[in-house]
């Protein structure tokens, strides 16, 4: 990233601890606000991630920064026998466990609290690893990606869904207005954490998307890298393998 972006400017905590605190704070209304903020398009983006993973017929899937488990739940459609959702925020995981129980998926989906930069798994543990709107929250992006590479099986697929910045007029200008003005305003009105949605906007703007992110993946050792812009470039799906 071009600069270190944290949720709370006056906090002495590490970015990792601040992100954990932030998501604990907003966990109760995160799902509803997420649908509003993305106009529901995040659902369509996740389905594309699931399709990419399903095409590889994985038996084991790790969803990092799983949050309330939306993507992990969708991954049940792949037929994988083992699905693990990992997140820093216990508050988000609690919401996710309730959703999983309501869908009778508890035997298939395990939700655990953990650190993406110190994954509690052996080398070559998973056929597929996904991260949706989470890599920009890593305190050390390269360290997190190195850990993902370590626990991904050779030949396994790694899929990232992350925000990006449109480059063409008028989408670029519209995105800037929405992310800098509208998104923080929505967060201030509807969320008890007034800093959270300003952080989410600022961290998205500072994330090294497109070719810059591809180059980092190559540096870590990933191969067969693709990036697929979504909805005029407001997000991107990155697909790579080991």
Descriptive labels:
242 residues, seven-stranded mixed sheet, 9 helices
Can you give a write-up of this model?
- The radius of gyration is 17 Å and the shape is globular.
- The protein has a 7-stranded mixed β-sheet, with helices on both faces.
- With 242 residues, the protein is of the alpha/beta class.
- The model has no long low-confidence stretch (mean pLDDT 90).
- It has helices at residues 15-26, 30-37, 41-54, 70-74, 90-102, 141-151, 171-190, 196-205, 211-220, and strands at 60-64, 82-87, 109-113, 126-132, 152-163, 223-230, 235-241.
Structural category is alpha/beta
- Can you write the helix and strand succession as a string? HHHEHEHEEHEHHHEE
Q: How helix-rich are the residues, as a percent range?
A: 40-55%
Mean pLDDT level? 90
* Total beta strands: 7
What is the overall shape?
Answer: globular
In DSSP terms (H or I, runs of 4 or more residues), the helix count works out at: 9
Read across the widest sheet, the strand sequence of neighbours is 3-2-1-4-5-7-6
Unreliable sequence segments = none
Task: Return Rg in Å.
Answer: 17 Å
Specify the biggest β-sheet. 7 strands, mixed
Distance between the termini: 24 Å
β-strand amount: 15-25%
- Counting copies of identical and different chains, the oligomeric state is single chain
SSE order and pairing:
Elements: H1 15-26, H2 30-37, H3 41-54, E1 60-64, H4 70-74, E2 82-87, H5 90-102, E3 109-113, E4 126-132, H6 141-151, E5 152-163, H7 171-190, H8 196-205, H9 211-220, E6 223-230, E7 235-241
Helix pairs in contact: 7-8
């Amino acid at each position: 990233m071009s600069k270190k972006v944290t949720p709370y400017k006056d906090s002495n905590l590490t970015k990792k601890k601040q992100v954990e605190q932030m998501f604990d704070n907003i966990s109760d209304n995160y799902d509803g606000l997420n649908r509003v903020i993305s106009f529901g398009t995040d659902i369509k983006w996740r389905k594309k991630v699931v399709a990419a993973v399903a095409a590889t017929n994985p038996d084991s899937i790790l969803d990092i920064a799983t949050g309330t488990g939306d993507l992990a739940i969708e991954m049940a459609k792949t037929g994988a026998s083992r699905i693990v959702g990992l997140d820093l925020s216990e508050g988000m995981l609690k919401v996710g466990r309730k959703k999983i129980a309501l869908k009778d998926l508890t035997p298939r989906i395990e939700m655990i609290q953990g650190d993406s930069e110190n994954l509690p798994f052996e080398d070559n543990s998973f056929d597929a690893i996904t991260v949706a709107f989470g890599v920009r929250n890593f305190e050390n992006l390269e360290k997190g990606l190195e850990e993902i590479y370590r626990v991904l099986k050779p030949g396994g697929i790694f899929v990232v869904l992350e925000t990006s910045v449109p480059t063409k007029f008028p989408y670029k200008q519209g995105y800037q207005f929405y992310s800098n003005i509208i998104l923080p305003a929505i967060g201030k009105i509807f969320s008890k954490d007034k800093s959270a949605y300003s952080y989410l906007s600022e961290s998205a703007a500072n994330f090294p998307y497109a070719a810059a992110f591809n180059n980092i993946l190559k540096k870590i050792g990933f191969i067969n890298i693709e990036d697929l812009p979504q909805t005029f470039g407001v997000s991107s799906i990155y697909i790579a393998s080991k």
